[in-house]
Amino acid sequence: MARKPMGKYRLRELRTVLLMIDLYEKHHRADAESDDRYRQLSAYATNRLERCQFGEDKPACKHCPIHCYQPAKREQIRAIMRWSGPRMLLHHPILAIRHLIDDHRPVPVHSPRQEVAVRTRQPSTTPSDNDIKKAADAAFL
């Protein structure tokens, strides 16, 4: 199944996240290992945005009911955003303001695929085959 191309909203969000990582990296560069770490985090964030099941209706990640980031990567990106966010107003003011506005987008309902997964974990309320056989036998007695 082919993936849908990213729309304007997700492309803008991806650009914002990559610029935040880049800004953080320029001011916190320590060694060659950190360059690789930031490159991997950028690729990870790109992958997560491309695969977001909400598509163009996605809320801000901190408000999303589905946390698709691994816990360690999530903490890394939170630290980067916490540091880069205020500085984005100086370096990229329009993107920063749009990012703040997008933070108030409504949170969509889970997709049907997720609801099916939740339903399979809950105990079934439908009668089993044994219950139906017992009821049929009782009706003929």
Using only CA atoms, what is the Rg?
23 Å
Number of helices: 6
Which class do the helix and strand fractions yield? mainly alpha
Strand/helix succession: HHHHHH
* Uncertain spans: 115-120
Q: How would a textbook summarize the main sheet?
A: none
Number of DSSP E strands: 0
Beta fraction: under 5%
What is the molecular shape? elongated
End-to-end Cα distance, whole Å, is: 54 Å
Helix content: 55-70%
Average pLDDT reading: 79
Could you describe the 3D structure shown?
This protein is an all-alpha fold. The chain has helices at 8-27, 32-50, 71-91, 93-102, 112-121, 129-140. The longest helix is centred in the middle third of the chain and has 21 residues, at 71-91. The model is unreliable at 115-120 (pLDDT under 50).
Question: Secondary-structure blueprint of this entry?
Answer:
Elements: H1 8-27, H2 32-50, H3 71-91, H4 93-102, H5 112-121, H6 129-140
Relevant terms:
single chain, 141 residues, mainly alpha, 6 helices
Summary, kept brief:
Helices cover 65% and strands 0% of the residues. The chain has helices at residues 8-27, 32-50, 71-91, 93-102, 112-121, 129-140.
